Amino acid sequence: MLVKGRKVAGRGEAVAAHYAFGPLEDDAIIKHRLLTRTTTTRGEPPLKKLQKKFTSFVLEIEKDADNYSDCERLSKAFLQELTTFELPLLKSKAVVDANLREKENFNELKDDINRQILQAQADIEDLKKQLEESKIERQHKEECEAIRRLIAMQPPRSETQKIITELEKEIAALEAENTAGSRTLELRKKQFVLLLHVVDELQNTIEEEQKSLVEEMRLATEEHKNGMEDASWGSEAMAVD
């Protein structure tokens, strides 16, 4: 027998209900009662009534007295009670069959839902990939747009080519000027070397001339000295005479 749970309110909270039997035991008890038809809301249980009818019929048959009419009456009562007992069983069987068909439909629906879920997951993955590709494509478009704006900010190609031509002319002029300056510098180097050589020769010539002049002055001095000596000696000789 089931014992109903009791809820006790305390500070606005409900206490969970407690039962004497668990869910599995309840299912087993209900199944047994439905099969044996021992539970009824009013009167005697159908199975007990059927058992009494059958027992009365068997006892009446076993009597040796001439009771054909009683046996026939009890037989009809038993068959009627059997029919009455069988009718709910047929209804229960129909309900069970309907439940089985509903279960099969539910399983098919469940499988269909699972397939839809798997398909939805696959579609989500595809959409994620498409989203990533779209992001990358959008990024590339933004980069291309930024490059296009930078290119648009630059002057036209004709002006750029004109500037390049002018710069090339300036570079050529600078290279020519550099070449001329290099040649001039090389010429100045050669002239400077020649100048140094001339100065060196001039210095040598001056030194030689100075030496020659010194030597001539020395010789002139010696000649003058010798002449004076000769004059002095002649005077002395005349005085002796």
UniProtKB/TrEMBL annotation:
Biological process terms in GO annotation: mRNA export from nucleus; mRNA processing
Q: Where in the cell is it found?
A: Nucleus
Q: Which UniProt keywords apply?
A: Coiled coil, Nucleus
What Pfam families does the annotation carry? THOC7 (PF05615)
- Coiled-coil intervals, chain numbering: 103-223
Extract one GO cellular component term from the record: THO complex part of transcription export complex
**Does the record bear Nucleus in its keywords?**
yes
| Annotated family | Belongs to the THOC7 family.
Q: What is this protein called?
A: THO complex subunit 7A
Where does this protein come from, organism-wise?
Answer: Liquidambar formosana
Species lineage: Eukaryota, Viridiplantae, Streptophyta, Embryophyta, Tracheophyta
